């Protein structure tokens, strides 16, 4: 169940089973007020979902999410919503469509429809924020194979987007 008035949405993508980076990302997002987390695909495995446990969250499949049946079952046990290849959410009175970004035809169809306030995607590992018509397109960047690991924080009330750099704790130590 999604709380009715979520206003601060944390967006992450392309974790590719990097647990330490994901843990640091979730900590960064929640420390900055994220009330709901959206993962834009390429989760990897169960330990990534463990990082989202206990926080209202949803995710879509990426092209590198191979054990989809297993991940979906595990997500259900944790109370995390699996949106499939493409999913829609309403948060803070705004409409979201979430996809990984590897299916360009679907992405173009969604943009042509102009039905959503936000389109969230990953896949490119490059942060992005621009509008196409009324739709604001956001890619938070990536937590794997990215020179700078980033996530995004969106305030649906003010439409303010902030990209946050994720810094992992040094091995064997804690920050």
Overview of this protein structure:
This protein has 175 residues and is of the alpha/beta class. The protein is globular, with a radius of gyration of 15 Å. The protein has helices at 19-31, 46-52, 68-78, 104-113; strands at residues 8-12, 36-39, 57-59, 81-82, 86-91, 94-99, 118-120, 128-132, 135-139, 150-155, 160-165. The chain has one domain (8-165): 4-Layer Sandwich (Purple Acid Phosphatase, chain A, domain 2), CATH 3.60.21.10. It is built from four helices and eleven strands. Helix 1 (19-31) packs parallel to helix 2 (46-52). It has a six-stranded mixed beta sheet, covered by helices on one side. The protein has a five-stranded mixed beta sheet with strand order 5-6-7-9-8, covered by helices on one side. The protein is 23% helix and 29% strand. A hairpin with a 2-residue loop joins strand 5 (86-91) and strand 6. The termini are far apart.
Number of domains: 1
Any low-confidence stretches, pLDDT <50, length ≥5? none
The main sheet orders its strands as 4-3-2-1-10-11
Q: What is the percentage of strand-forming residues?
A: 25-35%
How far the N terminus sits from the C terminus, by CA atoms, comes to 33 Å
> What fold name stands as the CATH topology?
Purple Acid Phosphatase, chain A, domain 2
- Rg, Cα atoms, Å: 15 Å
The structural class is alpha/beta
Mass-distribution shape: globular
Order of helices and strands: EHEHEHEEEHEEEEE
**For the record, what CATH class applies?**
Alpha Beta
User: What is the assigned CATH homologous superfamily?
Assistant: Metallo-dependent phosphatases
| SS field, number of helical segments | 4
Give the number of DSSP strands.
Answer: 11
Give the rounded overall mean pLDDT: 94
The CATH architecture classification is 4-Layer Sandwich
The main β sheet shows up as: 6 strands, mixed
Please estimate the helix content. Answer: 10-25%
